[in-house]
Amino acid sequence: MINKLFLALLTLIIGFNCFSQDTIPKKYFKSPLGIPLFLAGNFGELRSNHFHGGLDMKTQGKEGFNIYAAADGYISRIKVSPWGYGKTIYIDHPNGYTTVYAHLQQYKGEIANQVKKHQYEIESWEFDWYPSDTLMEVKKGDIIALSGNTGGSGGPHLHFEIRKTESEHPVNPLLFGFDIKDNIKPIIKSIVLTPLNDTSYVNNRRKPQRFLVTGTTGNYKLKYATPINAYGEIGIGIETIDKLNGVGNRNGIYSIELVKNATTIFKSEMKEFSFDESRGLNSLIDYEYFLRKKVRFQRSYIEPNNPLSIYSENENNGIIKFSQNEKIDFNYIVKDTYGNKSTLAFGINGNYNKNLIQKVLKASVDTTFSFSDSNYFEAQNISVSFPKNALYSDLELQFHTSDTLKGAITPTYFIHNDYTPLHKAIEISIKVGRLSEYLRSKATIVHFDRRKRYYSKGGSWRNNSIIAKSKAFGGFAVMLDTIPPKISPTNIFADKNMSGNSTITVKIADNLSGVKSFKGFIDSKWVIMEYESKKAKLFHTFDNLAKGVHTFELILTDGVGNESKVSIPFTR
Length: 572
Fold this sequence. Notes:
Layout: H1 4-21, E1 39-41, E2 46-47, E3 50-51, E4 55-58, E5 66-68, E6 73-80, E7 87-92, E8 97-107, H2 109-122, E9 127-129, E10 137-138, E11 143-147, E12 157-164, E13 170-171, E14 187-195, E15 201-202, E16 209-216, E17 219-222, E18 229-241, E19 255-260, E20 263-269, H3 281-284, H4 287-293, E21 298-299, E22 311-314, E23 320-322, E24 327-335, E25 341-350, E26 367-369, E27 375-379, E28 382-386, E29 395-397, E30 399-402, E31 412-415, E32 421-431, H5 437-441, E33 443-448, E34 454-458, E35 460-462, E36 465-472, E37 474-480, E38 486-489, E39 496-497, E40 503-509, E41 515-522, E42 525-527, E43 530-532, E44 537-541, E45 549-558, E46 563-571
Parallel strand pairs: 17-25, 18-25, 39-46
Antiparallel strand pairs: 1-4, 2-3, 4-12, 5-11, 6-7, 6-9, 6-10, 7-8, 8-11, 8-12, 12-13, 14-16, 14-18, 15-18, 16-17, 18-21, 18-23, 19-20, 19-24, 20-22, 24-25, 26-29, 27-28, 28-32, 30-31, 31-37, 32-36, 33-34, 33-37, 35-36, 38-40, 40-44, 41-42, 41-45, 43-44, 45-46
């Protein structure tokens, strides 16, 4: 057993040395898998509303591979969730780092025993637990779990992270010397030039213009020789990906540098980041272009309220001002973590022709909000509160209403549009006509997006208004959910002999507000029911159940308190 005092002292000494010198301990951590390492995703890869915080290690399309502790330490956190990381283990190490192992199929050994004990103590399968630092100590190479596909995983793999223990910032694991082969240079696919105000133009247009790229083995050029003309304040972005040996997955880029006339005006590096800033990815990319075209351009210019710490160099926030009749030469330098490099050289002419400029019809603006302030908007029966720094730049807010959404009890209020990203949640308050106490308890605010899909946001009442938060613009209305969730047993029915079954399995569904909680019982005693969200399935695995007649019960509750129950006698 590791002495607690010694471990704390060692953590302090090694951690201070590591952080003070800003060094990465090479070869300190072993691979968490016992098979060759191939990646489905890397650190800093661009994902929906966030950067990828670790490495997605392939498990040959299967579950059940041993997961090993990457170094000595102790289990500092265990989380079980039907979403996100699924079943997860966190190990604190004496060198000041924490390793994270996610999407696990099951825990092993003493960890499994402690998890089960904790679940029965709190009577919940889902939990987020910070056990004592002496409860579960591990040695480098100990088997701690089996690989799986739990949570938000899109297929069997291990998600592995290395974080700084004190700050909880994820650090690029590829900097730690794992045996992952990569001699492939990054791929550059296109660039985009964006006019940044009403007096800026690209090829006499005030809309972003995309230019395709061609090349191989790291040397790229624009696909077409047609000159690019620009005038005024312009931002440049790049579409680029990386690939690793032996796999076809598209991975993220480590560093992007933009050079203007031999001077670096922008550089970003994916060494580490904070989870608090990760949503700022929506300011790094051209968010609207991505939603419309499904192409992620990484901007080489920085919006006023962009919170990201990945920028190591910038001049005038990367914004370039073009004057008439000037020529500027540019060079993009793109690298992966292993130093493989690709370059793209191109020139832009400072030029526009006022006789060729296309007129752009601007939508009516209801009010203008400053990104640096908190803001408040009220119209008709809706009000919206914006916390400070919710916006990445000043916003010309647009508002309109539409006919009532089918099943809604209010009109749909459109707060701007969901092509503009938010960094922090806004508070939506909708005034509703007189309702009984029962119907008030069944009310929920729904968010209506550009694809005409709607999602429940919940809500709480303040006088005659229902209030909820949203991290996206779009349409908002109030709907009622009076329908209980649905329970559909799949392998059990009344009086069935379950001796040939290892589990009890049921399908669950809800029409609007979503499943909030579930509780399973056998003979009135609480039992573990696991939730597999991707299949909308609950299941209980039998464990030392005595032979004889038993009763299985399940209680399912949705987001507004509607409840469903089943009670099924069976034998085993």
